[in-house]
Amino acid sequence: MSGGALSAEAAARGMPRASVGRLRSNADLIFAAIGLVALMIGVLTLTALIVDLAVRGLPRLDLQFLTSFPSRRPAQAGILSAWVGTALVMLVTAVVTIPLGIAAAIYLEEYAPKNRLTAVIEVNVSNLAGVPSIIYGLLALGLFVYLLGLGRSILTAGLTLALLVLPIIIVATREALRAVPPTVREAAYALGATRWRVIADHLLPYSSGGIATGVIIALSRAIGETAPLITIGALTFIAFLPAPPVRPEFPFVSFQWLFDPFTVLPIQMFNWVSRPGTDFLPNAAAAGLVLILMTIAMNLTAIYIRIRVRRKVKW
Predict the structure, then answer these.
(1) Are 72 and 78 in contact, with CB atoms under 8 Å apart?
(2) Does residue 251 have a cis bond before it (omega within 30 degrees)?
(3) If you ran DSSP here, which 8-state letter would residue 233 be given?
(4) Alpha-carbon distance 193 to 181, whole Å?
(5) Could you give the count of Cα atoms lying within 13 Å of 162 in the half-sphere of its Cβ?
(6) 3 state SS of 246
(7) Alpha carbon 50 to chain centroid, angstroms
(8) Measuring CA to CA, how many Å separate 61 from each of 52, 86, 206?
(9) Can you give the pLDDT of all 315 residues of the chain as single tens digits?
């Protein structure tokens, strides 16, 4: 019940204004208490999970674990191929989805005509953000693996995750552009700036914080996805690394690694926890810690870039 409705009802009942104020204060306190309890439940649950991972995985986390390939012996098994594969897949995902998502959002928000077709596209983009990830895996299996012939490769995995998180970046970028005050646009147009100059020199710098937040959320979801990568054929056991991107001979740069087989940390963890017995559980917990650290490092990098951009922007 809103404050106006509460005041009207109280006036109809002949309640004094002091009583109405106490009712509002009590309602605010109850809502704040419920919100605090909900927040603490989530925080305590997350803390308990991280502590459990740390207790199980920290004794196993060392240089040998990071630089060894998977093995049938728990003490000798490592995650070298898994974390390298995760890093390469996320690199492809970021390179594809960040410019594509931001460009699509700019077009929909600043250039696209406001008609029924645009409205249908906007609704579908919002709905795609909630589609289960396994659907994207099936789409990628038919499109990238079979139709385009890219195979079960790092490139296919990166494109699959790019499709998965693309709607998140589009929606977040559009909201960030809408948050820029209209006076910024009006002032720029009044000085004779073109539409593209307004976008490049004003809207994008001022909305960089919201865009970076959307990118962080999108990539954080992508790095932990397993179902679409299993669908397109990611390996659960791999004892070699992709081809190096740099060669000693001309042309010195190689893209062969894009078409090599791969595995990622979530799949390696799934492989270990699905084995009978508990011998590999510490390995899975240690891999989980590495995955969390990679996510935090990726987020900190995006936050650093956002802070640097904000320092250059003056309202």
Answers:
(1) no
(2) yes
(3) T
(4) 17
(5) 22
(6) strand
(7) 19
(8) 14, 18, 41
(9) 445 554 555 454 555 666 656 767 778 888 889 999 999 999 999 899 889 888 888 888 888 999 998 888 888 888 999 999 999 999 999 999 999 999 999 998 888 888 888 888 888 888 887 888 888 989 898 889 888 888 889 999 999 999 999 999 999 999 999 888 888 888 888 888 888 888 888 888 888 888 888 888 898 889 888 888 888 888 777 888 888 888 887 777 888 889 998 889 999 998 898 888 788 889 999 999 999 888 888 888 877 877 777 776 655
pLDDT at 14: 53
Output the DSSP codes for 90-159. Answer: HHHHHHHHHHHHHHHHHIIIIIS-SSHHHHHHHHHHHHHTTS-HHHHHHHHIIIIIIIS---SSHHHHHH
- Reduce the DSSP state of residue 275 to 3 states and report it: coil
Cα–Cα nearest to 146, from 233, 70, 69, 209: 233
In the 8-state DSSP scheme, what is residue 242?
Answer: P
pLDDT at residue number 154: 92
Find the DSSP H helices in the chain: 3-13, 17-57, 63-66, 80-106, 116-128, 133-140, 154-178, 182-190, 195-198, 204-206, 208-223, 227-231, 265-273, 281-312
Are 257 and 246 in contact, with CB atoms under 8 Å apart?
Answer: no
Give the bridge partners for 58, in sequence order: none
Return the axis-axis angle of helices 281-312 and 208-223, rounded to nearest 10°.
170
Q: For residue 216, which amino acid is it?
A: I
Residue 159, token pair as written in the block: 């494109």
What's the DSSP call for residue 248? S
